[in-house]
Specification:
Number of helices of chain A: 10
Helix content of chain A: 25-40%
Radius of gyration of chain B: 24 Å
Helix content of chain B: over 70%
Number of domains of chain B: 1
Strand content of chain B: under 5%
Number of strands of chain B: 0
Shape of chain A: elongated
Structural class of chain B: mainly alpha
Order of helices and strands of chain A: EEEHEEHHHEHEHEEHEHEEHEH
Oligomer: heterodimer
Largest sheet of chain A: 6 strands, mixed
Largest interface: A-B, 54 and 48 residues
Number of helices of chain B: 12
Number of strands of chain A: 13
Distance between the termini of chain B: 36 Å
Distance between the termini of chain A: 38 Å
Shape of chain B: elongated
Radius of gyration of chain A: 24 Å
Largest sheet of chain B: none
């Protein structure tokens, strides 16, 4: 469980995180989304006690993390794939980390095995690919067998196999009853992974709800249709009182009626339909719409 | 392949709540062990110590060798010893300057390496109590560099006096001022390491901390005159100038415009080490990463 309460972070006059409140529940994978510079990393760092909030608080398992003497068994975190010294081997990095929290050294081999780095364990981290560093970071996060795990952009640099593995891992961790928070700036990465979404833009909360509820916010769905000359068809739809929007590919996006009715209207007007497709509003569209709003809102407020 | 097995001992997902959150004991010895693992698993630690040790020995033994090689037959060996020159060779000012440079850089990089690599975020997420972490780092650095300095000073003394002995001007360890010089030279390494570590913790930037350490340890005593009271006082308060006082084994206050005492030099060593250690431990608390 992670509870974010009226969290605010200011650097001088710049407000990076602005009165953010949400909760991340156990047993579910929560996607933490926002465009670049939305304040995701700053929020995560405050959650982990690395940055101090200007106002508000974050509680992990009931307490701000900074109040704990040791935290590896409370929360595991992958912040930046590079958060290890390049001169040490993977196994040395994890041994030091485990030892600092009194975690059994046997866990080191277990997590290295789990993330698929057993063969590279004695190689120096400096020679690792980005994907291997991500795996090492994930190994570090799992080291203390914590009830809460936080991953900042974990899919960066992973190959398709790695992406599939990580998604499976998130699902399994959540299935074991853990709280799993995964940040990303790409909606597509969360679409098949997250149960819940927390979306922020310019440091402010845009949405905190289930993936399904978020998808339902979309307004981009409808029927896409293409004819040789769209103007007469557009007039037919207008006469029927149907909303229609020209698309960049020369087609029309019709909302409110189904594909069958679109075909009938075109036939009635004597037009040959060259293309017809049902289109649902993708999560990506919803995400873009909502975060674009937040950007506009942000400039509005400045005036 | 996707790994779907449950972790050993974790039991099934439904029945056992995850995590060993129940009893994380916060033992300082764990932090000491962790810092020791970090220091010893970096190859640069051992290469750095080895190379700087050899360079310092080369300076000191080279000077003794020079004396041996160009010794004029019939020179006044008794007067040579009475003037304390064999002990100048036991640990030369050049050797001490190089040692201070290397040790300062070693301490600075031992601390800043953690920030520039991003490891500090991993470390302080796992151990939010930052002061004990930094205290453990200070203690481990000290524990490694005290024996390093001791071996270096002892080998330097033994080797230089062995060379000088061939001309009959080598002195034993119980020669007046000899043991004191060896001990002070041994402690020069940890004191300078702590200065470097403090600057590293303050600046969090490798090259910056190394340059600051050079400025504080090498340049400051260089630019301060010891003819007038205040500049001399400041000069004598620097680590290298304090070390120079130990190398003046035949000391006549009349030779100096601003005389200074051995006790004062010990005080400089002690105060510098303690202040540097405290700074390293204190500054990290509550800073943003």
């Amino acid at each position: 469980m992670i509870e974010v309460d009226e969290l605010t972070k200011r650097y001088g006059a710049r407000t990076v995180v602005d009165a953010l409140s949400f909760a991340v529940r156990p047993g579910r994978v929560t996607g933490f989304l926002g465009p670049n510079g939305a304040g995701k990393t700053t929020t995560l760092r405050m959650a982990l006690g690395l940055c101090r909030p200007s106002e508000g608080a974050v509680r992990v398992m009931g307490r701000p993390l900074g109040e704990r003497a040791r935290a590896l068994t409370c929360v595991g975190a992958l912040l930046d794939a590079g958060d290890a010294h390049g001169g040490r081997s993977a196994v040395a990095h994890l041994r030091a980390l485990a030892r600092s929290n009194g975690v059994a050294q046997a866990r080191v081999d277990e997590v290295l095995d789990e993330v698929g780095l057993a063969d590279a364990a004695r190689r120096r981290v400096g020679g690792f690919s980005l994907g291997m560093r991500q795996r090492l970071g994930i190994a570090g996060a799992l080291l203390g067998d914590p009830p809460v795990v936080v991953f900042d952009e974990p899919l960066n640099g992973l190959d398709p196999e790695g992406v599939r593995w990580v998604r499976g891992l998130f699902r399994r961790l959540a299935g074991e009853g853990r709280t799993v928070l995964v940040s990303s700036h790409l909606m597509g990465e969360m679409e098949h992974t997250a149960d819940d979404l927390v979306v922020i833009g310019r440091g402010r909360l845009i949405a905190a709800e289930t993936l399904a509820a978020f998808a339902a916010r979309g307004s981009g769905g409808g029927v896409w249709v293409r004819v040789d000359d769209p103007a007469p068809l557009a007039r037919v739809f207008a006469a029927e009182g149907v909303t229609v929007r020209p698309e960049r590919d020369g087609g029309l996006l019709v909302s409110g009626i189904d594909a069958g009715r679109v075909g009938e209207l075109a036939a009635g007007a004597g037009l040959v339909v060259r293309g017809l497709a049902e289109r649902s509003s993708s999560l990506e569209d919803v995400f873009m719409e909502l975060t674009a709003d937040s950007v506009e809102y942000g400039t509005e407020r400045k005036r | 392949m996707t790994d779907t097995r449950t972790r050993d001992g974790a039991g099934t997902a439904e029945t056992s709540p995850p995590g060993r959150e129940a009893a994380p004991r916060a033992r300082f010895t764990d932090l000491l062990a962790a810092e020791w693992i970090k220091l010893r698993t970096l190859r640069s630690t051992w290469w750095g110590l080895l190379v700087s040790g050899l360079v310092v020995l080369a300076f000191n033994i080279g000077t003794a060798w020079d004396t041996y090689r160009y010794w004029r037959p019939g020179s006044d060996a008794a007067g040579y010893i009475a003037d304390g020159i064999p002990l100048y060779h036991a640990f030369t000012t050049n050797g001490a300057t190089v040692l201070a440079l290397c040790a300062g850089a070693f301490g600075a990089l031992a601390v800043t390496g953690e920030y520039t690599s991003g490891l500090a975020r991993t470390t302080f997420t796992a151990v939010p109590a930052r002061r004990p972490v930094m205290a453990a780092k200070v203690l481990v650095l000290t524990a490694v560099t005290v024996p390093f300095g001791a071996v270096l000073a002892a080998v330097s003394f033994w080797a230089t006096q062995a060379v000088l002995h061939r001309r009959g001007v080598g002195v034993p360890l119980d020669h007046p001022g000899a043991l004191r010089l060896v001990v002070a030279s041994a402690l020069l390494a940890p004191v300078c390491v702590l200065v470097g570590a403090a600057l590293g913790a303050l600046l969090r930037h490798g090259p910056g901390a190394v340059f600051a350490s050079i400025g504080l340890l090498q340049l400051l005593p260089l630019v301060l005159t010891d003819d007038r009271y205040w500049p001399a006082l400041l000069d004598h308060a620097t680590v290298l100038s304090a070390w120079v006082r130990f190398s003046e084994t035949v000391y006549d206050p009349a030779d100096f415009a601003q005389p200074w005492s051995v006790g004062g030099a010990w005080t400089v060593f002690a105060v510098t080490a303690v202040v540097a250690g405290l700074v390293t431990v204190a500054v990290e608390h509550r800073r943003d990463l």
